[in-house]
Write a structure and sequence with these properties.
219 residues, alpha/beta, five-stranded mixed beta sheet, globular, binds zinc ion
Length: 219
Amino acid sequence: MLNAVEALNRLREGNHRFVADQSSSAALSSSARREALIAGQEPFAIILGCSDSRVPAELVFDQSFGDLFVIRVAGNIVAPSQVGSVEFAASRFGTRLVVVMGHTQCGAISATLEELQGGATNQSRNLRSIVDRVRPSVETLLSGRLQQSTDDLVREAVRANVRASVNHLRHGSELLEKLIQETGLLVVGAEYSLETGIVDFFDNIPATAQQGLFGGMLA
Ligand SMILES: [Zn+2]
């Protein structure tokens, strides 16, 4: 199993290929690859991302069957079932990297902002449960910043929401805290840009991972 820094570098390199239109996933998604994984999986990273159709984790990181354990939910929120999914993968497969990935122009973030600014409220209790998870970090941003443009607010809110999810995963689970302390499990935040295709890792990336962009384990 790759350690967290190696896993992070592998994701970065995959995203570089994706951005450069040099994706290799078609070759990796062969029937032989699929069959080789029937006996078991060993995903090297866990991705908690948004359900938005424009942000498929395997594609933006140029990865294939068996590489990523992906949890997708609108607004990349962290509710108990998301924590449980991360716990499952980290403890069962020994995966050492968890990435919470938001994205620019996220509809769940915009909907929360609209509601907080007095716009339409969500009728459905189920939809509201998502907005309620996003709301605290956006509310903090909003206080005293009413002059800011909506675009700027959404941009900041996306990152604030990712940070809140990262924080929840780091501190909201005894099992994950133990894995962080004892095995080097790393939980990081990232933002995918719809405009450029680039994934920017921005939350508490260890210095070794920042430096080692092309260093090391990947050929
Ligand atoms: Zn979204």
